[in-house]
Amino acid sequence: MSKQLTDIIKQYHPLLYRYACRLLVQPALASGIITKVFEELYDQDKLVPGPMLRPDLKTATLHKCEAYNKAYAVYEKTLNSQQLQNEKPTNP
């Protein structure tokens, strides 16, 4: 990994981590999501210093967090409906 790339990650990781923690239902997963954001932007050759780096990182983080929150909501809804189906009605 180049020094320039290491400096970018060191600079932006704490900022994106705080941003992701505010957006996520489960903030404990923020670090993993930020890592995925850096990996995807690296694969797309967008991790270069410039005026669009910060907005690109922030937008990618927002989209990843929204996708996770939607998936989590679907999972919770499914889990809750299964629990309701498994409950047996009690007659007093």
How would you describe this protein?
The chain is mainly α and 92 residues long. 75% of the residues lie in helices and 0% in strands. The protein has three helices and no strands. It has helices spanning 3-23, 30-43, 53-86. The longest helix has 34 residues, at 53-86. The protein starts with a helix and ends in a 6-residue tail after the last helix. 16% of the residues are buried. The model has no long low-confidence stretch (mean pLDDT 88).
Topology:
Elements: H1 3-23, H2 30-43, H3 53-86
Helix pairs in contact: 1-2, 1-3, 2-3
Tally of helical segments: 3
Q: What shape does the CA trace take?
A: elongated
Q: Beta-sheet strand percentage?
A: under 5%
- What ranges have pLDDT less than 50 throughout 5 or more consecutive residues? none
DSSP strand count: 0
Measured as a percent range, the helix fraction is over 70%
Q: Which class of secondary structure composition applies to the elements?
A: mainly alpha
Main pleated-sheet profile: none
Provide mean pLDDT, rounded: 88
> What is the CA–CA distance across the termini?
68 Å
Order of helices and strands: HHH
Gyration radius, rounded: 19 Å
